[in-house]
Amino acid sequence: MKRLMIATAATSIAALAAAPALAGNITPPAPDPVIAAPAPAPAAPVSYDWTGAYGGVQLGWGMLNADGGGLDEDGDGVIGGITAGYDWDLGNYVVGVGLDYNAANIETDPGNATLDALGRARVRAGFDTGNWLIYGTGGAAYADASIVGTGAESDWGWFAGAGAEYRVNQNLSVAGEALYHRFDDFDSTGVDLDTTTLQARVLYRF
How far apart are the C-alpha atoms of 171 and 65, rounded to whole Å? Predict the structure, then answer.
């Protein structure tokens, strides 16, 4: 009897000792699977309709050459003014017309020819890439200039060049262009004037 009691007690002690170990071996539940959020769809490219009127300002640098009539002089200076026009969007292409007027302070060295103002009546055509319009332009040019000893005041010529315009938003765009102007026999003086301008433009589109 005594042996049975000792055996029972020993069995109980062993069971109690094993209980924590068994509890420590319980496998924790697996975490819930993480479901990745789907990647956002890429934004559709912005496409603008270029049809409509615009107006704005332009500022830049001009280079003047006076050649003929005993002159062969070069000079450069600031040029800036206003512009307005109208464009038609034809899908992948844009065509338009416009007018520019610029005040200038471009004098040759040693100062025998000075360009005081430059106007343009233009047509342009370009490729529409959505935000960008890459274009060529040309037309008639008008200049107010003075040439020492000739009494020259104004004359008509022509110009041609290229530019790029970027639509910031629906109503605002910025542009840059390089233009070459030619005035042969300016105001019947025998002097040819060449003017190259580089200008930045800020335009509001209505």
Answer: 38
